[in-house]
Amino acid sequence: MEMDDLAEELISACRASIGDELRSIAYFTEETVEQLYLRSDLDRTADLTGFAELERSGVRSDDLYRNTQLGEYQATVRMFEHGYLTRVIEDRYGVWVTTDSMSMERFEDLASSVKPVLAAHASDGGG
Question: Superkingdom of this entry's organism (predicted)?
Fold first, then answer.
């Protein structure tokens, strides 16, 4: 799956599940990070490299969550003063999505929407 196709599918999945509360979408691997979407009322001042380094730890620690009584790992949600960051990982590919405040059920919808897009990307070899 080409990066433009991946970006389009992720944006579509996120918009469908969370609507206007979507703030940004960033895609990352161990080597790269790319902002795929940024809402027009936000500044491009986020340290993507710093965020990516923190979120990459989820790729490395994904194995630690296997075979727990909680079931399969779905996503990580981080709370901030002005919204949330949701990280979804599939294989060695990840996405973090930032949102305005919203109900917890919508985070479940978000993770369920993003995971199959990343899975299709992973099965294509990421390219």
Answer: Archaea
End-to-end CA distance of the chain: 5
- 103 in helix, strand or coil? coil
Domains of the chain: 3-123 (3.30.450.30)
Tell me the per-residue pLDDT of 24-39, one tens digit each, with 9 for 90 and over: 999 998 889 999 999 9
User: What would the two tokens of residue 95 be?
Assistant: 């996405």
Helices (H), 1-127: 3-18, 48-61, 104-123
The residue among 85, 87, 92 whose CA lies nearest residue 73 is 87
96: pLDDT strictly greater than 90 = yes
Main-chain phi, psi angles of 82, to 5 degrees: -110, 15
Q: If we measure between CA atoms, which residue out of 80, 81, 63 comes closest to residue 72?
A: 63
